[in-house]
Design a protein that fits this description.
single chain, 190 residues, alpha/beta, Glutaredoxin, 5-stranded mixed β-sheet, two-stranded antiparallel sheet, 7 strands, 46% helix, elongated
Length: 190
């Protein structure tokens, strides 16, 4: 009789482990679904429109988006107390260099205090430019009300993509869509 109880107990824990694995897998898909929903919604500036240029104070001086025109940018709205932002920064884990290798410069636009942002930058070892907005003034320019939400800006200063960016895989998908969108084959001359 003891063998049946032990087997049942072990089977119960194995089933619990399987359920935890399934739930984690489903949670990872949330970012992808939110990205698709974000693209279908009319949130923020339209893809194809001109990205607003801004200038603001960061932790290490002034950040001026106008000086970055000509580069492919990811303008990412974050906040130091935002749990999905923290998860995103954890998932970066060295991927910032990979993003830079793709020719994308990440610019963070954050709320919160100077102190909170310094802690965030230090904790996640962020090296990209960061602008601290006072009252959502830059988010209002872009029409962004979620964090983390990103806008891909092409080298011509136009918005090439947008979406919720709460995971490095979702970011990769957003950047890949943007890269393929701008690389349609040119018609051959006859």
């Amino acid at each position: 009789m003891e063998g049946i109880w032990l087997t049942t107990y072990l089977l119960q824990w194995a089933l619990m482990g399987l359920l935890v694995f399934i739930v984690i897998g489903l949670m990872r898909q949330i970012g992808e679904m939110r990205l698709r929903v974000g693209e279908e919604r009319e949130m923020g500036l339209a893809v194809g429109g001109t990205a607003p240029l801004f200038q603001g104070e960061g932790l290490d001086g002034t950040v001026d988006l106008e000086t970055m025109v000509g580069e492919r940018l990811l303008v990412l709205f974050v906040h130091p107390t935002c749990p999905p932002c923290k998860e995103f920064f954890r998932s970066l884990n060295g991927e910032a260099e990979h993003i830079a290798e793709q020719g994308v410069k990440m610019v963070l636009v954050s709320g919160g205090s100077q102190e909170q942002n310094r802690e965030m930058v230090d904790e996640y070892k962020l090296t990209c430019p960061l602008v601290i907005q006072q009252e959502h003034e830059i988010a209002d320019l872009y029409g962004s009300s979620w964090t983390p939400f990103g806008f891909v800006v092409d080298a011509d200063g136009n918005i090439a993509g947008k979406g919720v960016v709460n995971d490095v895989h979702v970011l990769g998908e957003l950047l890949a869509k943007d890269a393929t969108a701008g690389s349609s084959p040119k018609p051959e001359s006859t």
